[in-house]
Amino acid sequence: MADFCAECAPLIWGEGVEPDIDIDGIFEDLQPDTGLSVICEGCGLVTVGKTNNGEMKLAVLTNNKLNWMSFEDFQSIKRINI
Ligand SMILES: [Zn+2]
To answer: Is the dihedral of CA 55, 79, 15, 17 positive or negative?
Structure first.
């Protein structure tokens, strides 16, 4: 079964359905300077990370390129696979 992140899940299933990839929950559980690998089939999100000063950084795979971005930038990316 495909997994979808908290930004893509509402587009697939509508509001009120738990996303497979709870970005905020994952981020809360991370220690500084670590990340967790995930795979969102909707947008290409592959890693939720926390910097050593507690900022969220998200890695998105687009056209075989890995792009690290803030949550704000992540929210604005085009979700091409949906
Ligand atoms: Zn996604």
So the answer is: negative
- Phi and psi (nearest 5°) for 11? -70, -30
pLDDT tens for residues 31-75?
A: 999 999 999 999 999 999 999 999 999 999 988 999 999 999 999
Residues near ion ligand 1 (CB < 5 Å) are 5, 8, 40, 42-43, 45
Question: Could you tell me the distance, in angstroms and rounded to a whole number, from the CA of residue 41 to the centre of ligand 1?
Answer: 6
User: Which sequence spans correspond to the domains of the chain?
Assistant: 9-76
Q: How confident is the model at residue 63, as a pLDDT?
A: 87
Distance 16 CA to ligand 1 centre (A): 16
